[in-house]
């Protein structure tokens, strides 16, 4: 339901029917369970250093259709650790993935290493399908323990065991590539004289004026405001405009009580904004049917003036706009609030990034090798490899600092699949310490530094930023704040799935009606009653209970309790 979950199921396609009908013979099932491993007993160590004397391959699932171990960086990782992975692609969207994971769990026929969201991991944990990892980490993961430091206990489940691993974020500054999610075309801002746009009312005014003067762009109807799917049309924009961190479909108050955002005052205000756009013919006529697959090509046409577009989604269609030479049709990324009185806490980070975590299933005969592999990723050498790439190929050393030359950048931008082919896009990259973090050598852990971002801007982008006296889009954001977790990162409470599904169905059905409503206040009240009668209070109580456990553990970890 959240932005980042979506961010996870990026751009998928067509294997649903095929995968549903393909059966496995007994021998094939055995291969799936055991993986392609060596026949010799691997040499284990007790000092946590990788034991590379025996090669071993594990199976792991992935929702990234381009993931491959046959890349230069993956091969370097194998050279360092003796470990390689064979990817099992799960392509077909979130619903299909859930079906697949449920079938695996029911049959016991799952890979040795699982990459799953917390809500799926909870099912596998409860079924006894996952190995506890704390003893393995104690023996084979010194770098994991070192880098997590005081946050190490956050890895532990309520029963005291660790069932999955993910990264720790060590940034103390806002990453230079971070940007707000409201996007407005450069040309709109330029024609208006680069006005201050901090509220939805100001956004409405500038869109209205531009559309009145320019009803068409390149011979096609101008679209003042659009989106990319239900979460990013109705829910997440209301969180951003309300200055809230992205807790998915929820908001959390100062007393750590969890509330359903779908019926909050912020949601009501945002539906009213959409309703106003609709009444004035400023809203995309196809906004209710746009998807992650159909929206990019529409954005790339350059006739959408503004929208709510997270960076992970906007980057591809905006690159198409740029490639077509329409530099003035790129987007400024600005934080926009309901009004000037809203305190903006939306630039929120977590000390760990629990999402698509790695777990070791009980089918794994050599779990210590997986821990040793992950432990290598937690070294500075491993971080440089998975985030920067190979020295001399993907980056250089200049004045003692890692640096990507213009020549290297041009090589990367010339091929949209470069990162995948090189191995910079594989799922082990999820163990990166994050943009804005620094390694022990004092240099940045990833290439996305402020200097790098500025070098990548074209002249038109620099002109827009200069008009607002900013260097990067990150400069528009409020100060970085850390929160214990995002709510969608914690395991789904028992019984919550059925309630969430029931509420989601009502939300999906009623949201377009609210946007098109001619009697908004009464329709809003009816909508709220439907949600309330479908288990809202029970769902909020479940998540409040789980959230308070997270907060207690977080406070203990950082020494506040």
UniProtKB/TrEMBL annotation:
Q: List the Pfam families hit by this protein, alphabetically.
A: SBP_bac_1
Q: Which species expresses this protein natively? A: Paenibacillus pini JCM 16418
- Outline the segment boundaries, as ranges, of region: Disordered: 31-52
Query: What is the name attached to this protein's record?
Result: Polysaccharide ABC transporter substrate-binding protein
Give the lineage.
Bacteria, Bacillati, Bacillota, Bacilli, Bacillales
Show the Gene3D superfamilies listed in the entry: Periplasmic binding protein-like II
Q: Which SUPFAM superfamilies match?
A: Periplasmic binding protein-like II (SSF53850)
Q: Which PANTHER family match?
A: ARABINOSE-BINDING PROTEIN-RELATED, DIACETYLCHITOBIOSE BINDING PROTEIN DASA
